[in-house]
Each structure stands twice: as structure tokens, then as C-alpha cells.
């Protein structure tokens, strides 16, 4: 195993998710060569951790979630060969990833397990956190669709996973709907409630063009873990852009310990030049998802339902937001669209 990269003087650790969250934007079609090249560059550039695998986490290879070109263990082994400093991270979603999947990921070289649950269901990840620790991995938690919980609920759920051994708790703005004040209140509350040794993390999506500024707000309030993606590669309007955030950190006097030029070159030459299948941008649909608080996984389903029932997809998205849908409920869209048509006569 590689020696973990040193934490920069600022204490802020960057987790690059290009090779995991970015997988959503290319239908999970990363090649071994792409993973090897980008993992090597990211490791040499000095990011603290590199996330690799299917966009929906370990065990997600299926018709429902998408079939990748290569299995998670294959991609992890490819990354492991070139990583000399960074942690190698995987995501596991209870109900999708299994014990065997996590064991296989560990055998392939993963050192950081990120257990991902809906923010109101943190308790279903307790066993997965325990298994990660038994396997000798660092155990972190992603609390998804965090906008569905108020500050007190978020703190309550965070305490559950910390009690189960999670040493990092991420606020995941799955819909890119938070404003800066939303971030500040949540990070400050977590920092006040959790032990000092537990890291607070931020995972932002860019639906309202606030991913970088919200991530900076989180850092200013005490977050020391930030998820990013080269060129913002990710579902919908994409993720917090690695090279942009590092530049803003440097401009703000927050030392990242990362080679910015290397990140920019990789983002432009490899991600935009070779991998990106469509422009990652904020358009009328992705911005509406941020407005309504609906995760990017609903986007294609809303477009298809709009075409089928003669509805504006934005109206469907707004209705979904009113119903506070979470990831995994995408099959409700047809029923919602039929109700909307019925109400309109």
C-alpha cells in the first residue's frame, strides 16, 4: 500500500471524484487507460484521496444503474499501480453494495470507504462502517440529499455515524440547491457538535453555479474535507471543479499543497479533450433542479416523461421537489406526470 499523502498546512484535504462521480457523465465508460493516467496525475499533483469506481458505488453494475466497461476491482487495481501517496477511495451505498463488494475493493487496493446514505437514514450505514474498519480502511460517511434535513436533524444523523466509527462526515448537496448561508449554518453546527478529530466534509453540485463558493464557505466554517472533480465532470451541471477550487483557495491564502498547473492540464487536455461526452453546464433543466431541490439522477427521466405526456420537464421537476424525492425513487416520475396531466384535464 502507498503511504498516505500528507495533510497540507491549511488542514484542507481534497478528495477528487472525477473517476467516480464523473462516471455518471459518461455512462460509466471509463477505460483502464483513462483511470491509470488520471490517477497518476492526481496522485503526483498532491490530492489527498482519489475516488474510483462506478458512479453509483460498489456493486452497482446492472441494467438499472448502468454497465461499465470494467469492473470496480479492475479499475481500482489500475489506479493502485500508479498511486504512491493518495488514499484510494470507494463509495458504497447500503442496499446496492455488499460485504463481498467492499472486501473485493479492499483486496484491489482501496484504503478509504465512503458509506453513502440518505441524510435521514444514516443508521442503515452502521454495519458498512463497521466492516470498513474491520478491513483496516478509513471509514467516512456521505449524508446525501442533505437539504431534506434541517440543521438539528443533520447533527443527529451525523452523531449516529460518528458513534459507528466514521472519522469523516460529508454534507452532500445532491441537488446543488444550498445557498452559502445554508452551508455555513450546517458546517458550524457539525463542527460544534462533533469531536475535533472527526473531519467535516463538503460535496457540492453546481446546479445554481455555487459549488465553488459554497465549498469555500464550508472551509471557512471549519470543513477540512472537500469533494471535487476535474473540469466539474459529473451528473447534471457537474460537481465542484477541482482546479477552480484550488485556485480560489490559493487566492484566499489557503495552502492546498497541490500542483494547480497539473490539474488544469489534466482537466483541459484529458477530461475535456478526450473524455467528456457533453458540455457540463448550467442550463434551464439543471438550474431548475437546483431551484427545486431534485437530484441529477432524475434529469433524463423527467425529460422522457415530458416528451411522453406533453409536459414541460421543468414543471415535472418542480413537482418532484415538492414531494421531496430522494435518489432511488426515479420510477415515481411516470405516476407524477400522469397526475399532472389529469389535473390539467
Overview of the structural elements:
Helix 1 packs antiparallel against helix 9. By secondary structure, the chain is of the alpha/beta class. Helix 2 links the parallel strand 2 and strand 3. The model has no long low-confidence stretch (mean pLDDT 94). The chain has 2 domains: 263 residues, TIM Barrel (Alpha-Beta Barrel); 60 residues, Helicase, Ruva Protein, domain 3. Helices cover 43% and strands 14% of the residues.
Can you write the helix and strand succession as a string?
EHEHEHEHEHEHEHEHHHHHH
Q: What's the total helix number?
A: 13
- The CATH C-level name of the largest domain is Alpha Beta
Helix/strand/pairing class, anyone? alpha/beta
Report the end-to-end length measured between terminal Cα atoms. 63 Å
Q: List low-pLDDT spans.
A: none
Brief overview, please?
This protein is an alpha/beta fold. It has 13 helices and eight strands.
Helices and strands in order:
Elements: E1 13-19, H1 32-45, E2 49-52, H2 72-82, E3 87-92, H3 99-107, E4 112-118, H4 126-134, E5 138-144, H5 151-163, E6 168-173, H6 180-193, E7 199-204, H7 211-220, E8 225-228, H8 242-251, H9 260-275, H10 284-292, H11 299-309, H12 313-322, H13 333-343
Parallel strand pairs: 1-2, 1-8, 2-3, 3-4, 4-5, 5-6, 6-7, 7-8
Helix pairs in contact: 1-2, 1-9, 5-6, 6-7, 7-8, 8-9, 10-12, 11-12, 11-13
